[in-house]
Amino acid sequence: MIRVPKHLGRLARAAGCIGSRANVRTKKGGVCFCKSLMEIKCAKLLEESPKVKRFAIEPFAIPYQVEANGRVWKKKYKPDFFVEFEDGTRQVFEIKPTSQRGWMLNKIKWAHAKKFLDSAGIGFSVIDEKALKGFV
């Protein structure tokens, strides 16, 4: 089942969850932890799609650097979903509300992720609430 944080409370139950779990099993029968209602919706769509062979939530960390005010911070970014489709293509999805797409830090880490994933032949997309409606 897909677990959701307890602090989502009524919102989680309204999205089809019981207690702290969504009513969805992963393709391998495991349990996934989601941090937002948008991630829960995405996980459900991936689970139900016949095009999806398998998927993982926050499967790996991508290193990147942020330079500001003469300092360099080394960070790690964990994208939300890694998806392997039945046709063999692989894609990483970041789930973010439209309001956060323009944040500078997000733009920096997504640019690093795209470069890193392109070199491995893996696609990268940011999915907002509008795109989630027509997703998979």
Structural description of this entry:
By secondary structure, the chain is of the alpha+beta class. It has one domain (38-133): Trna Endonuclease, Chain: A, domain 1 (3-Layer(aba) Sandwich). Helices cover 28% and strands 32% of the residues. It has helices at residues 9-14, 37-48, 104-118, 129-133, and strands at residues 2-3, 17-18, 21-22, 32-33, 52-57, 62-68, 71-77, 81-85, 90-95, 123-127. The strands form three sheets. Strands 2-3-1-4 form a four-stranded mixed sheet. The radius of gyration is 16 Å and the shape is globular. Residues 1-25 have low confidence and may be disordered.
Features:
globular; 136 residues; 4-stranded mixed sheet; disordered N terminus; Trna Endonuclease, Chain: A, domain 1; alpha+beta; 32% strand
Radius of gyration: 16 Å
SSE sequence, one letter per element: EHEEEHEEEEEHEH
Distance between the termini: 20 Å
Number of strands: 10
Number of domain units: 1
Q: Assign the CATH topology.
A: Trna Endonuclease, Chain: A, domain 1
Helical region count?
A: 4
**Mean pLDDT across residues:** 79
Biggest sheet: strands, sense, closure? 4 strands, mixed
Q: How would you sum up the global shape?
A: globular
Question: If classified by CATH, what would the architecture be?
Answer: 3-Layer(aba) Sandwich
What is the name of the CATH class? Alpha Beta
Helical residue percent?
25-40%
Structural class by SSE content: alpha+beta
List the helices and strands and how they pair.
Layout: E1 2-3, H1 9-14, E2 17-18, E3 21-22, E4 32-33, H2 37-48, E5 52-57, E6 62-68, E7 71-77, E8 81-85, E9 90-95, H3 104-118, E10 123-127, H4 129-133
Parallel strand pairs: 1-4, 9-10
Antiparallel strand pairs: 1-3, 2-3, 5-8, 6-7, 8-9
